[in-house]
Amino acid sequence: MGCHMNKNGIVSKKTNKRDAGSFLLFVFLLPYVCASLWGHVGEEADRLRENGKEVYLVEASVEWGVWELPLEEYLVYRLCLVMPDDYEPEAWKAQAVLLRTEMAALYAEQGEKRAAVDGDGLARFYKNGAEPAALLKKSRQAVKETAGEILTYGGEPIRASYFRVSNGSTRDAGEEDCPYLSAVSCEQDLEAPDYRSVVKVEREHYIEKLRGALEGEFDDQTLWEEGKFSFDGAGYMTKVSYIDENGEEERMDGETFRHLFGLSAASFALEREEEQAVFRVTGVGHGFGMSQYAAGCMAQNGENYKEILAAFFFRTELANFE
After folding, report:
1. What is the mean pLDDT of residues 132-146?
2. 104-137 pLDDT, tens per residue?
3. CB 184 within 8 A of CB 312
4. Cβ neighbours of residue 155 closer than 8 Å, sequence gap 6 or more
5. N-terminal to C-terminal alpha carbon distance within the chain
6. What average pLDDT does the segment 80-97 reach?
7. What 3-state class would DSSP assign to 83?
8. Closest-CA residue to 284 (of 200, 194, 185)
9. Among 235, 90, 102, which Cα is nearest to 161's?
10. pLDDT per position as a tens digit, 29-78
């Protein structure tokens, strides 16, 4: 290539064919460079299509906006968030199938190949920046080895429920609501490190919390002593009812009650001492579906993910999600 000085003393560069080609290449690549600079993963455009077909997408709301990514990629990150690191790969695979099933039901509900989700916690995975490579590799392998698989009942995606630790049994959701969710004994959960917990609530705070959550007018004595608690066959609280000053009954379901007082599960024994309520809680989570701790024990004992899923979800079938 050659240069020459013009009459104004400015050095100008002669353009040959190679330079022109380089310029055109730069112009062609500019949109991709900009996309990378302004928050898109460099290979995003290619990953949103497979074999010329549009794939299922997830729009995850994160701190800085909306992160759009393919379903299978989303599952890799989501799996890392919900599954304990040290569980065996087969337990991770069972969880991957449940997460994919959960999304399949959401796509069916929204009627398109794009679903909006709460991306709480996902931002740390952006560009794989803040998560150990080994954990991502383990998660990616579980998603890959169950690729496309969902759990169905009657040809439809199931309610893919899961939780951390049972109180010794999962819960029966009822034949009409979810016939595949029946009570399953999980004696191994009794050995889980976080199986037992104790929560103490000052009497005044206990009454204030209930009064703020209920709509009627109640005196202190009613809220402190006169609630009627109901429990299901597995020992989880299903509801509590109070009679207000007008003689009207007001109810609160078990999950609302346990979150009101920060209990790890609705399986508890309540003791009222003179100035405080003491909750002795067993288990972690709502109790429906798969106990992750039990699944981890089953995987450790050599059971595969299909056997694990079959143990918690009766009369269901694995199907391919397309």
Report:
1. 93
2. 999 999 899 999 999 989 888 887 655 678 889 9
3. yes
4. 319
5. 55
6. 96
7. coil
8. 194
9. 102
10. 443 433 333 334 434 444 445 554 568 999 999 988 999 999 999 999 99
Alpha-carbon dihedral angle through residues 92, 98, 102, 103, given to the nearest 10 degrees: 50
CA distances from 305 to 63, 99, 143, 168, 296 (A): 34, 13, 12, 21, 10
Each residue's pLDDT tens digit, 159-192: 999 999 999 999 999 876 799 999 999 999 999 9
Q: What is the pTM of this model?
A: 0.81
Q: Report the distance separating Cα 96 and Cα 54, nearest Å.
A: 22
Q: Which residues, including other chains, have CB under 8 Å from residue 81's CB and lie 6 or more apart? A: 121, 122
**Are 146 and 139 contacting, i.e. CB atoms less than 8 angstroms apart?**
no
Calpha distance 46→51 (Å, rounded): 10
CA angle 118, 119, 121 (to 5 degrees): 130
- 3-state DSSP call for residue 225? helix
Distance CA(204)–CA(109), nearest Å, equals 44
Question: What tokens appear for 90 in the block?
Answer: 């087969």
Q: Report the C-alpha gap between 209 and 207 in whole angstroms.
A: 5
Identify residue 119 by its one-letter amino acid code: G
The two tokens of residue 18 are 């190679």
* CA separation for the pair 246, 295 (Å, rounded): 49
The values of phi and psi at residue 54, to 5°, are: -70, 135
**CA nearest to 161, candidates 138, 178, 148:** 178
Q: Is 103 exposed, middle or buried (0-12, 13-18, 19+ CB in 10 A)?
A: buried
